[in-house]
UniProtKB/TrEMBL annotation:
InterPro entries: RNase_HII, RNase_HII/HIII, RNase_HII/HIII_dom, RNaseH-like_sf, RNaseH_sf. Endonuclease that specifically degrades the RNA of RNA-DNA hybrids. Residues 10-200 form the RNase H type-2 domain. It comes from Aquimarina addita. Its cofactor is Mg(2+); Mn(2+). This is Ribonuclease HII.
Length: 200
């Protein structure tokens, strides 16, 4: 069973991101403040949930939340500032959208940067421990998936509807065959053989 939050007596938000390891599309983060009486049997780390369960949870979390925010950081910025900084920026911009602002932030993972003067705690595998982080992971994942499904219509040969931009064998094959799109992250190693230069 997940615990609601780390600090029972503080107005606390959970934050998490999705899409860090993808070859295409944005990195997406969410931040959410859940009410103290929030209960849900289904809620878990988004990676443990089926797509249909995440889809079911998203409107429910949005309805119940005291406040939530979601942010995409796109490919150009990921290539400029790197994926770790882009992930943290997405989380911070999501927290900025919260009204009221939290008194404490719990972050999934082990890296974060100070946000204003708000104390924060990084929790490894936090999305499997705290409901507020798990809720943020579900929002981040579903918003990102929706975006990937939309751009799939533009470039169906990469099958982003299914792989969501992750480095599947099929996705790499499509890059090999069709090259890259404006949605691909140019700073990422898109194909294993990118390391070898063809010297004529």
């Amino acid at each position: 069973m997940l615990t609601l939050k780390l600090n029972a007596d503080l107005l606390e938000c959970g934050t998490d991101e999705a899409g860090r390891g993808c070859l295409a599309g944005p990195v997406t983060a969410a931040a959410i403040i859940l009410p103290d009486n929030f209960k849900n049997e289904l809620l878990n780390d988004s990676k443990q949930l089926s797509e249909s369960k995440r889809a079911l949870l998203r409107p429910l979390l949005e309805d119940c939340a005291l406040s939530y925010g979601v942010t995409h950081i796109f490919m150009e910025d990921i290539d400029k500032i790197n994926i770790l900084n882009a992930s943290i920026l997405a989380m911070q911009r999501s927290i900025e959208q919260l009204k009221p602002q939290p008194e404490h932030i719990v972050v999934d993972g082990n890296r974060f940067k100070p946000y204003k003067n708000t104390p924060y705690t990084c929790v490894i595998k936090g999305d499997g421990k705290f409901m507020n982080i798990a809720a943020a992971s579900v929002l981040a994942k579903t918003y990102r998936d929706t975006f990937m499904e939309k751009i799939h219509e533009e470039f169906p040969m990469y099958n982003w509807k299914k792989n969501k931009g992750y480095p599947t064998k099929e996705h790499r094959e499509a890059i090999r065959k069709y090259g890259i799109t404006k949605y691909h992250r140019k700073s990422f190693r898109l194909l294993p053989e990118q390391l070898t230069l063809e010297l004529e």
